[in-house]
Specification:
Layout lengths: L2 E4 L7 E4 L6 H8 L16 E6 L9 H9 L7 E3 L11 E6 L9 E9 L4 E4 L9 E3 L10 E6 L8 E12 L5 E8 L4 H9 L9
Parallel strand pairs: 1-5
Antiparallel strand pairs: 1-2, 3-4, 3-5, 6-7, 6-11, 7-8, 8-9, 9-10, 10-11
The structure holds FE2/S2 (inorganic) cluster.
The site of FE2/S2 (inorganic) cluster has 12 residues, from loops.
């Protein structure tokens, strides 16, 4: 019978014995494993885990899973999306380390983004006097559930920071090519977290 060890935290791992042929997501559900899920369709990357042992006992990642892992700078087989993983017959011991839990869903940041024709990306002018501009590049139209890289440079810092976030919803604003966008942080950054906590999530669209 396959055994999965979840190292979260590493000093106090949780062990689950599961039935043959189970998907990793249902193994997590049944065992109450500390792996956060959101979309369960391999789109948001919330359920990413590091595979410390037993990668060969998991079915190979497909192109879609690999492309979402790449957004986070990760690659299979060392990392996987738990919602996409099927365990192979005869699996033995698998050791996983879940990514840190995502930000609570209630903490959304509403950003007034404008499509910038020159860069081909979305730019928000100062949403906070400490943050400078926020830039989301690499996309010419917004998509709900899309995982994006949010780039910003805090005032007084030399280098810009990058944080992974998910587009929860958006609506056109009064500005030409402008949108009010609700973002959910999928990675921790103290400054952006502070901003997220300062912004109320309620909107007319309900996101
Ligand atoms: S829960 Fe969204 S990718 Fe797995």
């Amino acid at each position: 019978m396959p055994t999965i060890i979840f190292e979260n935290p590493p000093e106090n791992p949780q062990t689950a014995q599961i039935a043959e042929g189970t998907s990793l997501a249902s193994a997590c559900d049944v065992s109450g494993a500390p792996v956060p899920f959101h979309c369960r369709r391999g789109n948001c990357g919330t359920c990413r885990v590091a595979v410390l042992d037993g990668a060969e006992m998991l079915a190979v990642a497909d192109a879609h899973e690999r492309s979402v892992l790449a957004v986070f700078g990760l690659s299979a087989p060392a990392h996987r999306l738990a919602c996409q993983v099927q365990m192979l017959e005869g699996a033995g011991q698998i050791r996983l380390r879940p990514h840190a839990p995502r930000m609570p869903r209630a903490k959304l940041l509403r950003v007034p983004l404008v499509l910038d024709a020159r860069s081909g990306g979305f730019v928000a002018d100062l949403c906070d006097e400490r943050t400078g501009a926020i830039v989301i590049s690499g996309m010419s139209e917004l998509q709900e559930e899309a995982v994006v890289v949010v780039e910003f440079q805090a005032r007084g810092e030399d280098r810009s920071r990058e944080v992974i976030a998910r587009i929860v919803g958006y609506e056109a604003s009064a500005i030409p090519n402008g949108y009010d966008v609700a973002l959910e942080l999928l990675e921790h950054d103290a400054l952006l977290t502070e901003l997220f906590q300062a912004h109320a999530p309620a909107t007319s669209n309900g996101y």
